[in-house]
Amino acid sequence: MNIDLTHVNPFLNKDVVNELESRIPATYDTIYQKTGAGNDFLGWVSLPSEIDENLLADIEKTAAELRKKSEIFVVIGIGGSYLGARAVIEALQNHFAPLTGEKPLIVYAGHNMSEDYLHDLMAVLDKKDYSLAVISKSGTTTEPAIAFRILKQHIINKYGEQEAASRIVAITDKARGALKQLANVKGYKTYIVPDDVGGRFSVLTPVGLLPIAMAGIDIRALVKGAVEMERQCKANPTASNPVSQYAVVRQALYAQGLTNEIIVNYEPRLVYFSEWWKQLYGESHGKQHKGVFPASVTFSTDLHSMGQYIQDGLRNLFETVISVENANHELRIPMENDDLDQLNYIAGKRISEVNHKAELGTVLAHEDGGVPVIRITIPEVSALVLGQLIYFFEMACALSGYMLEVNPFDQPGVEAYKKNMFALLGKKGFEEKTAELNRRLEL
Ligand code: PA5
Predict the structure, then answer these.
(1) What is the Cα–Cα distance from 400 to 405, expressed in whole angstroms?
(2) Is 119 among the residues known to form the active site?
(3) CB atoms within 10 A of CB 420
(4) Residue 115 among the catalytic residues
(5) Cα-to-centroid distance, 199 and ligand 1 (Å)
(6) Chain centroid offset of residue 415 CA
(7) Does the pTM exceed 0.70?
(8) Could you give the CA distance from residue 363 to residue 375 in angstroms, rounded to a whole number?
(9) Residue 57: its H or E element
């Protein structure tokens, strides 16, 4: 993979860039020496190269057993406890996976509190053989806890206590949290989320690896890609490293007043990769009234919606394009003798070639419109490349978070809605808050 800064350089203030670049070696030091804020959550830094062979083999074994008896695999989790897995699975599976009949189909729950969603899911599960993973590091998050309580009853009703227990995997903290106690009592297969790896950095732990293996994806290739990127960073912790370049450029643009970053893909299989990226950057940096606002679009789809704003709207944004050099399949535009649709001028070309020209045309149009464009080019969408990208963005997130002078590894802001929700639900210990909110809502 490569970073292309051609379409961002004209916008950069060199003094700002030089200042940020001068901070890069010390920022790597802060990460590797674990001397910065949130330093007890730096386990992801050396995670890829330290993954235990026994753990990988165990995950593969569990996945192989469950795959044999599952038409559907339900991943219950929210935020970092599901987005990484979904990003990789959706990037690598068939776009029409639910229609191909390939088994198991991976579906998600516990990432919302929609009654209708769970109702519809259970109506499907009534008729299918399934197994599930409940994933929560804290073991106490409300959304997955509710989904698990409902689906636990469903799976027990369907298979009986004993068989149901063999179809449930719990992925959680080694000791804390209700989920761990529950898993112990019920004898579920359990994987541990390491203490020093936060949710949004946990895709290369069992949190991501088990669901990804359930989808039949080569988890070793994914890890190998991450190891390559880990080594590349370690070998060159300077401003010339592409990871550092990305971190520096986005921080420089932010310092110049461009407060919104849009991650752009031209492949719909990367939509959930963008979701994972948004969570990683939004939750890591949006603190103390600071941070780049992360957004995403899929082109050319969104060139017919958000494209207008990006080209012509408020000039407070920049783009980061994930450019895929090679499609995984070949499809050419056919020639038609009558040429009634006037497409013969591109007959014989691959769709990906047209897509690529749309990308280059858009990059230049946006540059002309005052939008700096960072391009990250990858040879193809594969497990190996996704592993590289995951580590690339994790390390860049840590670097730019420290340069922004926030703790990239906590998420204190997530608690505010929870507190209000608990108070409104009348949870014990929230009485004062309940009274205050009821007054404000005139209940
Ligand atoms: O990145 C994070 O830490 C969060 O997004 C968490 O992953 C998310 O809140 C879910 O937490 P938990 O795994 O404890 O249920």
Answers:
(1) 8
(2) no
(3) 17
(4) no
(5) 5
(6) 21
(7) yes
(8) 9
(9) helix 53-68
Residue among 304, 330, 415, 432 flagged as catalytic:
304
- For residues 108 and 117, the answer to whether their CB atoms sit within 8 Å is no
Instruction: Tell me the sheet residues that pair with 120.
Output: none
Let me know: does 273 contact 87? Beta carbons within 8 Å: yes
Q: Is 283 a catalytic residue?
A: yes
pLDDT digits (tens, 9 = 90+) for 98-144: 999 999 999 999 999 999 999 999 999 999 999 999 999 999 999 99
Task: Decide: 110 in ligand 1 pocket, CB within 6 A.
Answer: no
Cα-to-centroid distance, 239 and ligand 1 (Å) = 31
Beta-carbon contacts of residue 279 (< 8 Å; ≥ 6 apart):
79, 80, 83, 200
Q: Is the CB of 284 under 6 A from ligand 1?
A: no
Amino acid at 314: L
Å from CA of 198 to ligand 1 middle: 7
Strands across the sheet containing 189-192? 105-109, 72-76, 130-136, 168-172, 189-192
Residue 255 token pair:
């310092």
Cβ–ligand 1 contact at 198 (below 6 Å): yes
Helix, strand, coil percent content, the chain, rounded in steps of 5: 55, 15, 30
* H helical segments located in 160-288: 161-166, 178-186, 206-214, 219-235, 242-255, 271-285
Q: Dig out the tokens for 176 from the structure.
A: 């804390």
Ligand 1 atom closest to Cα of residue 200:
1
Ligand 1 contact, 200 CB (< 6 A)? yes
Is the CB of residue 201 less than 8 Å from the CB of residue 41? yes
136 lines ligand 1 (CB under 6 A): yes
Alpha-carbon separation of residue 331 from 318, 327, 335, 354 (angstroms):
32, 9, 13, 11
Tokens 């009274």 correspond to 435
Contact partners, residue 327, CB within 8 Å, separation at least 6: 267, 350, 351, 352, 355, 380
* Positive or negative: CA dihedral 43, 403, 223, 199: positive
pLDDT tens track for 386-413: 999 999 999 999 999 999 999 999 999 9
